[in-house]
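queue> pop job 88
queue> type: inverse folding (structure -> sequence)
queue> payload:
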C-alpha cells in the first residue's frame, strides 16, 4: 500500500480511536510495518499542518489527532454550550449504556452505539456523571462506569436498582460478546 493510502487510513482509525494509539497497534490494524506507519504519520502531519483544522500529535504515548490551537476558542465554545445545555439524546444513550453495562471500554460503547463517542464521554466525565479508569486487563485503555454523583443525582445507591437492570444488562452483555467476537475475527483475518 502506498504512503498516501496508509496516511488516509491512519487518519481514519485515529479519528475513530480518539485516544493515543501506539505505532505498533496502528501497524497491526493497517497490516503494514511500523516503519510504513511512521512514514505515513509524517506525511499526515505535514498535510494537516498545511491545511485543515486538525493536527497530528506524535509522542511517546503514541499518535493522536487534535484540533489546531487556532480553533481552541471555537472548540471551547462548543464544549461550553454542550456543558450548559441539557443532556442530548446521544449523551443519555451513552450514559445509559455505561450505567447498565459499566465498566465498559470506549470501543464497546462505540460498537453498541455505532458512532464515535469520544466527545460525549469527555463531556459526561467533565459533568461528573461517569468515571474513567485504567483497564486492568489492558493498561493502555480505559473503562467507563457511572459515578457516585450520577447515582446520587438519580436517587439510587447502586446501578442494580435501575429500572429493569438485569434485562438491559444482559442485552448489553450480549452486544459486548458480539463485539469481542468481531475483534477476534478481525485479528484472525489481519494475521492471514
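queue> result:
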Amino acid at each position: 500500500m502506498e504512503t498516501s493510502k496508509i496516511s488516509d487510513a491512519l487518519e481514519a482509525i485515529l479519528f475513530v480511536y480518539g485516544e493515543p494509539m501506539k505505532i505498533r497497534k496502528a501497524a497491526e490494524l493497517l497490516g503494514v510495518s511500523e516503519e510504513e506507519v511512521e512514514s505515513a504519520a509524517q506525511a499526515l502531519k505535514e498535510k494537516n499542518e498545511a491545511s485543515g483544522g486538525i493536527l497530528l500529535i506524535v509522542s511517546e504515548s503514541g499518535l493522536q489527532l487534535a484540533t489546531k490551537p487556532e480553533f481552541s476558542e471555537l472548540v471551547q465554545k462548543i464544549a461550553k454550550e454542550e456543558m450548559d445545555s441539557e443532556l442530548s439524546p446521544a449523551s443519555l444513550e451513552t450514559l445509559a449504556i455505561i450505567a447498565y453495562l459499566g465498566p465498559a471500554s470506549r470501543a464497546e460503547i462505540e460498537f453498541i452505539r455505532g458512532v464515535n463517542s469520544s466527545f460525549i464521554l469527555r463531556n459526561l466525565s467533565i459533568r461528573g456523571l461517569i468515571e474513567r479508569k485504567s483497564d486492568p486487563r489492558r493498561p493502555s485503555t480505559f473503562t467507563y462506569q457511572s459515578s457516585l454523583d450520577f447515582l446520587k443525582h438519580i436517587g439510587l445507591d447502586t446501578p442494580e436498582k435501575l429500572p429493569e437492570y438485569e434485562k438491559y444488562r444482559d442485552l448489553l452483555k450480549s452486544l459486548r460478546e458480539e463485539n469481542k467476537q468481531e475483534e477476534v475475527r478481525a485479528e484472525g483475518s489481519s494475521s492471514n
